[in-house]
Amino acid sequence: MRKVSKGNFGYIESSRKFAIARTIIALLICLAIFLTGLIIYHSNKSAFSIIAALGCLPAGLSAVNMIMYLRAHPCSKEAYDMIERHRQGLLIRYDLEMTSYEENYGIAAATVLDKNVCCFTEDKALDINNCEKHIRNQIAQSGYTDYTVKVFKDLNAFCKRLDQLEQIRSAKNIDPVAIEDSWVPGTVETCALVLLSISL
Question: CB of 110 within 8 A of CB of 93?
Fold first, then answer.
């Protein structure tokens, strides 16, 4: 089972599998410790029970994490294939599940170029206005103000926008991939990295 890096296509599916496996293993370890104490002492009043109970804390956290990934909205293979045909020199981040106190926003794909944040969602129930406001507020905290944020539910419209952004990228000779690769840890995150950091 190969772990997919955050922002790459397949990240949510990969993280789901790891979260499920981790949670099952953690619960089995807790159960094994408890049963060991029960077999040895014929009672649940032993140090083994305390250790098993304490082990339930990380197991519970893992279960919560697993539920978050199970509820997340990954990018479909069909959408991915179409987006890849239009990306050209653009940097595309996939499988971004953005979390907030009020709700979660499932972003299948996103790109940032020249003060434009362009996203695509396959979540039909997603409130576009709230999502755009959330992204705008989050990137503003890192100093990225006056950015245009647009979330599309129509894949064709999103791909058309990618074509337009590619024209801008080519005309201005911008290399967004090189910009991301040259980022130095400890410095202010790029706008594209902010999108990753506010995602699950």
Answer: yes
The DSSP-derived string for 74-123 is PPPHHHHHHHHHHHTT--EEEEEEEE-SS-EEEEEEEEEETTEEEEE---
Tokens for 180? 């991301």
Q: Could you give the residue ranges of the DSSP H alpha helices within the chain?
A: 11-41, 47-71, 77-87, 128-140, 155-172, 176-181, 191-197
The letter for the amino acid at 68 is M
Kindly report, residue by residue over 6-30, the tens digit of the pLDDT: 999 999 999 999 999 999 999 999 9
Angle between helices 77-87 and 155-172 (to 10 degrees): 30
Q: Are 106 and 121 in contact (CB under 8 A)?
A: yes
